[in-house]
Design brief:
The complex is a heterodimer of chains A (167) and B (270). With 167 residues, chain A is mainly alpha-helical. Helices cover 64% and strands 11% of the residues of chain A. Chain A is built from five helices and three strands. In chain A, strands 1-3-2 form a three-stranded antiparallel beta sheet. In chain A, α1 crosses α2 and α3 packs antiparallel against α5. The two termini of chain A are 23 Å apart. Chain B has one domain. Chain B contains nine helices and two strands. In chain B, β1 and β2 form a beta hairpin. In chain B, α6 runs parallel beside α9. The longest helix of chain B has 32 residues. Chain B is flat. Chain B starts with 5 loop residues before the first helix and ends with a helix. Classes of the chains: A mainly alpha (167), B mainly alpha (270). Chains A and B meet through α1, α2, α4 and β2 of A and α1 and α5 of B.
């Protein structure tokens, strides 16, 4: 029963992806998209949806607000700081690789924090240690090399929002 | 380093002037246009006849390249698919010789982090959905069976790199099944091409790999199916060929890459 529900939810999501890619919204196309979405979901949904009981509207709300904030405020701020470095005559910003610990347990949270760090200019996750619970981040303008400072400066904001979505 | 406020301005001016000079040069040298205003004879023949349902030689398909591939030169395309099939069969014969004796526990695990695994897991279904769309709309938009199948193969490649070959096998993508899908699809393509010949033996004129009706032949695959929810344009047999070719290419390439990855994994173990 639980498996069937997760297949249907994931199948409908895939149907939306299919429709957006195809760009045609006729009734024939919608029926076709749902059929293909369900076939794909039958193969993959078991691997992707790990705990269906966690699905709730508040999590979706947090996800959407985080995405909007991330792609407007956070990205703009990070881009601006890197633009300033590019346009300044200082060609040696002294980058460093720092260890950034994380407290999250869910794999999706961990991966989305890592991708949020990488996608903002100036910081790139180059490796991670699942046992020691730490990312290794290349940081263009390090202000401090200690774990706690790196955590506060790089990933605290991402982790605060994403634990509400996935944990 | 000497600091100056004018440096960014100089950079900006240099960039803009390089772009402008390149644009002017390209326009003067004529590299931006082909300088051709008319279609040549052969192109005109195809462009005017294939998409136009009123013409006697129409294929009832809007994607002219796919229509040429499966209708005007269908037999040729079939042999191309067969050549690919033989290549896959040869590589299976070479690579699976050892695979039957050694039980393989080789995996890519330990080489990839959780980030690669989770992102692969999320991207793979989207690739599969998009490839299905490319294959199904091959007769309407650029794309088709081969293109859709090739796009699909990216998904197994990602899985093999992130999770290793055992994961793929455990999800039902084993050698024998992939080879069976591949062989069945190629056979069905030929059967669909052979149906007009059966018509020829029983009723009247028809040609091998014929798609829709021709001036001297009444045989036609249904190219516009009316249903209660709307008309489905199938462009005759082109849609069937595209879907079968999608399965053939997807299964064939997946099989080849699966076997190659196993070889690499065995190399790592030694």
């Amino acid at each position: 029963m639980r498996k069937a529900v997760s297949i249907i939810i994931y199948g409908l999501l895939m149907a939306i992806v299919y429709l957006i890619y195809t760009g045609v919204f006729s009734l024939v196309e919608i029926i076709l998209s749902i059929a293909i979405g369900l076939i794909i979901a039958y193969i993959f949904a078991g691997d992707i949806i790990t705990d269906l009981s966690k699905l709730s509207l508040s999590r979706i709300y947090h996800a959407i607000t985080y995405l909007i904030k991330y792609f407007t405020v956070i990205e703009a701020r990070a881009h601006w700081s890197v633009i300033k470095i590019i346009l300044s005559r200082n060609t040696n910003p002294k980058p460093a690789i720092v260890r950034v610990p994380f407290k999250a347990n869910n794999p999706y949270t961990i991966v989305f924090i890592a991708n949020s760090i990488t996608n903002t200019p100036g910081t790139v996750v180059i490796d991670m240690d699942e046992n020691k619970k730490a990312y290794y981040v290349h940081w263009l303008t390090p202000t401090s090399l200690t774990d706690d400072d790196a955590y506060r400066n790089i990933s605290l904001e991402f982790e605060k929002h994403l634990t509400k979505v996935f944990e | 380093m000497r600091k100056s406020k004018t440096f960014p301005v100089i950079c900006l001016i240099t960039t803009i002037s390089i772009v402008l000079i390149l644009a002017v040069l390209l326009n003067i040298s004529g590299l931006t246009t082909y300088g051709v205003n008319e279609l040549t004879g052969l192109a005109k023949l195809f462009v005017l006849n294939i998409p136009d349902p009123t013409k006697p030689w129409s294929s009832h398909a809007f994607e002219i390249v796919t229509a040429i591939l499966w209708d005007q030169r269908g037999l040729d395309t079939y042999f191309e698919t067969s050549v690919l099939f033989l290549a896959i069969v040869a590589s299976v014969a070479l690579l699976s010789y050892y695979g039957r004796r050694h039980v393989l526990e080789g995996t890519g695990d330990g080489y990839t982090t959780m980030i690669v695994k989770i992102v692969t897991k999320l991207v793979v279904p989207i690739i599969a959905v998009v490839s299905a769309s490319i294959a199904i709309h091959g007769h309407l938009t650029p794309g088709g069976g081969f293109q859709g199948g090739s796009v699909f193969v990216v998904a197994p490649v990602l899985i093999l790199l992130a999770y290793g070959s055992r994961f793929l096998s455990s999800r039902g993508f084993n050698e024998l099944r992939l080879l069976a899908i591949r062989a069945l699809s190629v056979t069905l393509i030929f059967v669909v091409g052979l149906v007009p010949v059966l018509y020829f033996l029983m009723h009247g004129t028809a040609y091998l790999f014929q798609n829709t009706y021709k001036p001297d032949s009444a045989f036609t695959y249904p190219y516009l199916i009316p249903t209660p929810i709307g008309e489905i344009l199938t462009a005759g047999s082109i849609m069937i060929y595209n879907i079968l070719e999608f399965f053939a290419v997807a299964a064939g390439f997946t099989l080849a890459i699966l076997l190659l990855t196993r070889e690499f994994e065995r190399g790592e173990k030694k």
